[in-house]
Design goal:
Helices cover about 75% and strands about 0% of the residues. The protein has about 230 residues and is mainly α. α9 runs antiparallel to α10. It is globular. The two termini are about 40 Å apart.
Length: about 230
């Protein structure tokens, strides 16, 4: 299989949907975006379905055509993030981009929504703490997220770009915790510093997970250098 180089952010052109399908997708997206903005402004618990439909300028009944409950908005957000990760994992296996750049672009893709709406991170945390249903659904999404990122890390290990002395799932979990922590602290300020904070975190993370030769290999290399 021919490996592709270049950006993993390229967009595939899907088939053109019918007008009815486009209209349905537009309504769902309008409700979804209105809800995220309100969750950020008012908080998840304080936002009602009526608030969402008013902000989206649609009838209240329309909401339930797309989302069974308010909780399903956050589940849709989690699935959207998961879809981005799935696409990057798929493309990475066919690309020759360095893993450091792949992981950097991955984080930038996954933080597009928080940059657009800083308060969404606080809203997600509030929902996870206050709703058993949301927490259960998000934990299942997190498990799938961790498994996918583990696949990506394992691919980097096979390419000898990521250290191999730790299980890929362990590296994936530390990676996720670091990025989420960065997002959480940034959300308290909600300023324009997220990209800078992410770059700093990525730099430190990469230093810790980059491939390194084993101690024996390093020692042999050193001895060879001494003889010269």
């Amino acid at each position: 299989m021919k490996r592709r180089s270049g950006s993993l952010l390229s967009v595939r052109k899907p088939p053109v949907p019918s007008r009815r399908v486009r209209r349905s997708a537009e309504l769902r997206e309008r409700l979804f975006r209105a809800a995220l903005v309100l969750f950020g402004k008012k908080g998840y618990a304080e936002t009602t379905v009526e608030d969402i439909t008013e902000a989206a300028d649609v009838g209240k009944g329309t909401f339930f055509n797309y989302f069974p409950t308010k909780e399903h908005i956050l589940m849709a957000f989690g699935e959207m993030q998961l879809g981005k990760l799935e696409a990057i994992v798929h493309d990475t296996k066919q690309s020759d981009l360095p893993m450091q750049e792949v992981l950097r672009m991955l984080v930038l893709r996954m933080t597009e929504e928080p940059i657009r709406n800083p308060a969404i991170v606080r809203a997600l945390l509030q929902a996870n703490l206050s709703s058993v249903r949301v927490r259960g659904a998000m934990l299942r999404i997190h498990d799938r997220n961790r498994a996918l990122l583990g696949q990506l890390i394992r691919h980097g290990q096979e390419r000898r770009e990521i250290r191999t002395d730790l299980p890929p799932e362990e590296i994936a979990q530390v990676w996720r915790q670091t990025i989420f922590g960065t997002l959480l602290f940034w959300s308290l300020a909600g300023d324009a510093s997220l990209t800078q904070r992410i770059e700093q975190s990525l730099s430190v993370l990469w230093t810790g997970i980059a491939f390194r030769p084993s101690a024996k290999v390093a020692k042999r290399t050193k001895k060879a250098g001494d003889k010269e």
